[in-house]
Amino acid sequence: MSTLELNYQHVLQRLQQACTQSNRSSQSVRLLAVSKTKPATMVEAVYALGQRSFGENYLQDGMDKITALTHLHDIEWHFIGPLQSNKTRPVAEHFQWVETVDREKIARRLSEQRPADMKALNVLVQVNISAEEQKAGVLPDEARALCQLISELPNLCLRGLMCIPEATGDEQRLSTQLQAMQALYQQLAAEFPAMDTLSMGMSGDMELAIACGSTEIRIGTDIFGARDYPANNPPNN
Ligand SMILES: *Cc1c(COP(=O)(O)O)cnc(C)c1O
User: Fold this and answer.
1) What distance in Å separates the CA atoms of residue 232 and residue 235, rounded to the nearest whole number?
2) How far, in Å, from the CA of 125 to the mean position of ligand 1?
3) Which atom belonging to ligand 1 lies closest to the Cα atom of 100?
4) Which is the closest atom of ligand 1 to the Cα of 57?
5) Ligand 1 pocket member 62 (CB < 6 A)
6) Tag placement on the chain: N or C end, fewer CB within 10 Å?
C-alpha cells in the first residue's frame, strides 16, 4: 500500500471510531479531503480510493486541478479559502460548494455569477466562533442575518455553517468553542430547513469535532502529508 493509501485508510478508521464513540453513524460525517497545494495526480489517486469531496483554499491552485480533472464526473469541489469579492466568478462557475461566505457582498455576487445551467451553489456561512480579531467569519450573533439573506438568494443553497476554531493546545478551550458552534448550528438549522452541514474538525481535532456534532471534517495533512508551501507563503491567489 502507498503512504497515501495508508494515510487515507487511517483517517477513515479514525472517522469511524469517533462516530462509534459518539453513537453516530459514520454516514453522518462527510470526509472532505483538503488537497490545497497538492498536485492533481494526488487528487486522482485519492479519488481512485473512493474519495469524492475535495477542498481547495487557493483559487488558481484549485482551478488548475479542476481543469485537469474534468474527466472525473462525480468529483465534488469545495472552496474553503478566504474569498475576495473580485475573485468570486471562477468560484461561482466551477465549484459545487463554498464554505467561507462571511459577508453580504460575496453572497450576492456568487448568486449573480452562478451560471443558469448549474445547480444552486451550496453555501456555508463561516463563523468566527472564537471571536478572534482579524479572523475571517461572522461573529456568532451576526450569523442569523447572513443566513436569512443567503436563503433568499436564487442561485445559492444555504447548507450550514463552518468554523476554524482557535489554534490552541487547550483542549477545554477548544471544546467550549466547538460546543458553542454546535449550539448555534442547532438553533439556525431549526429555522433554515435546507441546513444539514456543520463543517468543523481538521487533522488535529477531528475526534473532538465529531463528538461535538460535526457533519463534515476537513482533513489535509493527515491524508496528503505536510504541505509544500509554508502557510505564510501561499501560492498566488
Ligand atoms: C488547510 C485547511 C484544512 C486542513 O487542515 P489540516 O490540519 O492540514 O488537516 C481545513 N480547513 C481549512 C479551512 C484549511 O485551510
Assistant:
1) 10
2) 16
3) 13
4) 15
5) no
6) N
Q: How confident is the model at residue 227 (pLDDT cuts 50, 70, 90)?
A: confident
221 lines ligand 1 (CB under 6 A): yes
- The CATH number for 3-224, chosen from 1.20.1260.10, 3.20.20.10, 3.40.50.2300, 3.40.50.150, is 3.20.20.10
pLDDT tens, 59-76? 999 999 999 999 999 999
State if residue 200 touches ligand 1 by the CB under 6 angstroms criterion: no
Q: What is the pLDDT averaged over residues 48-53?
A: 98
Regarding the beta carbon of 164 and ligand 1, being less than 6 Å apart is answered yes
